[in-house]
C-alpha cells in the first residue's frame, strides 16, 4: 500500500514509518518539525529513517531508507496538503501529527486550535477530496477525564475532559465521526495510553525523570506519587497501529479503539525501575497534583484485541531498552 504518516518526525510517527516501510509498504512521512521541544531530536529521528536534515526543503519530497520518503509540510497548509494527496493517491493515511502536551495546552490553547482542530480538518478534507481505503487518527486516553470507572472502555462517556489538549482530541473524534457519516469514509480513532520507549519526547515523564536522576537533581513527583499510568511500550503501540491500519471498520464506517497495555502501574513503581536500570538513587520532590492531570489511566483493550492486537513488552523489558537509548543519545548529544 501507499501510506501517508503525518507527524513522522515525532516519537510514535518515526517508529510507525520505520515499521510500515519494513513491511514493504511505500511510506511518505510528513511533519512541520515545529519547536514545541528540541528540534535536534526530531532531526535525529529523521536521520534514523535515512532523511538528511540538509536535504529538507518545504513541500519537497526527500528520499530516505528503502520505501521511505519525507515531505516537510504543515497540515495547516491546506493547499499544498491537497496537492500532495492529488499527486500521491494514498491508500491509507495514519494521522499522528498534533500539538502535544497537556500542561502546555493550559497556557497556549491557540496552538491546539491551529494544529489539532484546523490541521485535522484539513486532513479530513484531503481524505474526502481524494478517497482512500482507511484513515487512522490519533486520539488520547485523556478524553476519559477524571473517572473512577476502570478500566476505561470505548463505551464510556467522554464529554468531560479536564485539559484543553483532551478537549481538542475529543473534538477530533466528533469531527471524524461526522465525516464518516456524511461522506462514507472508513475511519478509526486510536486512544493512546502513556506510550514510552526509545526516541520518546523530552517533555514526558520517562525522559524528565532519567535526565534529572542522571544529573543528581530532584525529580518532580506530582500528586505525591499517588497516580498510575497504563504504560505501553512503543513496539506494542506500533504493532497495534499496523494491525488496525490494514483492517478498516467492516460493519460501520467509524470506530474508536483503546490502544494500551491494559495493566496500570503505580508511578513510584515505574520510577524505581528507572532507578534500578540507570543505577542511581533519585531524589524526590513530592508535589501536589497538576492542573489537567488525571489520577489514573487504565485501558480496556478487549476491542482492539479482537483484531489481533497483543502487548508483549513488560516494564521489566521495556525500561531497560528505553534506558539504553537514553544513555546513548543524551551522552552523545550532551543534553
Query: How many helical elements?
Result: 11
| 3D shape | globular
Secondary-structure element string:
EHEHEEHEHHEHEEHEEEHEEHEHH
Q: Which residues sit in consecutive blocks of at least 5 with pLDDT less than 50?
A: none
Query: What percentage of amino acids are in beta strands?
Result: 15-25%
SSE-based structural type: alpha/beta
What is the helix content? 40-55%
Distance between the termini: 39 Å
Q: Round the Cα radius of gyration to an integer and report it.
A: 19 Å
Give the strand tally: 14
Overall pLDDT metric = 95
Order of strands, widest sheet: 3-4-2-1-5-6-7-12
Largest sheet: 8 strands, mixed
Describe this structure in words.
The chain has helices at residues 11-22, 39-48, 78-88, 104-107, 109-129, 164-183, 205-214, 234-245, 267-278, 302-305, 315-333, and strands at residues 2-6, 26-31, 61-63, 68-72, 92-95, 134-140, 187-192, 195-196, 219-221, 228-229, 232-233, 254-259, 265-266, 284-286. The protein has an eight-stranded mixed β-sheet, sandwiched between helices. It has a two-stranded parallel ribbon with strand order 8-11. A two-stranded parallel ribbon has the order 9-14. The longest helix has 21 residues, at 109-129. The chain is built from eleven helices and 14 strands. With 335 residues, it is α/β, with parallel strands linked by helices. Helix content is 40%, strand content 17%.
Amino acid at each position: 500500500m501507499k501510506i501517508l504518516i503525518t507527524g513522522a518526525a515525532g516519537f510514535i510517527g518515526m517508529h510507525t514509518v520505520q515499521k510500515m516501510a519494513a513491511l514493504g509498504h511505500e511510506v511518505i512521512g510528513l511533519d512541520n518539525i515545529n519547536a514545541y521541544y528540541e528540534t535536534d531530536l526530531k532531526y535525529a529521528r529523521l536521520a534514523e529513517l535515512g532523511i538528511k536534515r540538509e536535504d529538507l526543503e518545504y513541500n519537497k519530497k526527500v528520499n530516505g531508507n528503502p520505501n521511505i520518503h519525507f515531505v516537510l509540510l504543515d497540515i495547516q497548509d491546506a493547499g499544498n496538503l491537497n496537492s500532495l494527496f492529488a499527486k500521491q493517491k494514498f491508500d491509507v493515511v495514519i494521522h499522528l501529527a498534533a500539538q502535544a502536551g497537556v500542561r502546555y495546552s493550559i497556557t497556549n490553547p491557540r496552538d491546539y486550535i491551529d494544529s489539532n482542530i484546523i490541521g485535522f480538518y484539513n486532513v479530513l478534507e484531503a481524505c474526502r477530496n481524494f478517497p482512500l481505503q482507511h484513515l487512522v487518527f490519533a486520539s488520547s486516553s485523556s478524553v476519559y477525564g477524571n473517572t473512577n470507572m476502570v478500566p476505561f472502555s470505548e463505551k464510556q462517556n467522554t464529554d468531560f475532559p479536564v485539559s484543553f489538549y483532551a478537549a481538542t482530541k475529543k473534538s477530533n473524534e466528533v469531527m471524524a465521526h461526522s465525516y464518516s457519516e456524511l461522506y462514507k469514509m472508513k475511519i478509526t480513532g486510536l486512544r493512546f495510553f502513556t506510550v514510552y520507549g526509545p526516541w520518546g519526547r523530552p517533555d514526558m515523564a520517562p525522559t524528565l525523570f532519567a535526565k534529572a536522576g542522571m544529573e543528581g537533581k530532584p525529580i518532580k513527583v506530582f500528586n505525591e506519587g499517588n497516580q498510575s499510568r497504563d504504560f505501553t511500550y512503543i513496539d506494542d503501540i506500533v504493532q497495534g497501529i499496523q494491525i488496525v491500519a490494514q483492517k478498516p471498520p467492516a460493519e460501520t464506517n467509524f470506530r474508536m479503539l483503546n490502544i494500551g497495555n491494559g495493566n496500570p502501574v503505580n508511578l513510584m513503581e515505574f520510577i524505581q525501575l528507572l532507578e534500578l536500570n540507570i543505577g542511581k538513587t533519585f531524589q524526590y520532590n513530592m508535589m501536589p497534583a497538576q492542573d489537567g492531570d488525571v489520577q489514573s489511566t487504565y485501558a480496556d483493550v478487549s476491542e482492539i484485541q479482537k483484531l489481533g492486537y497483543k502487548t508483549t513488552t513488560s516494564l521489566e523489558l521495556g525500561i531497560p531498552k528505553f534506558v539504553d537509548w537514553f544513555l546513548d543519545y543524551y551522552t552523545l548529544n550532551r543534553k
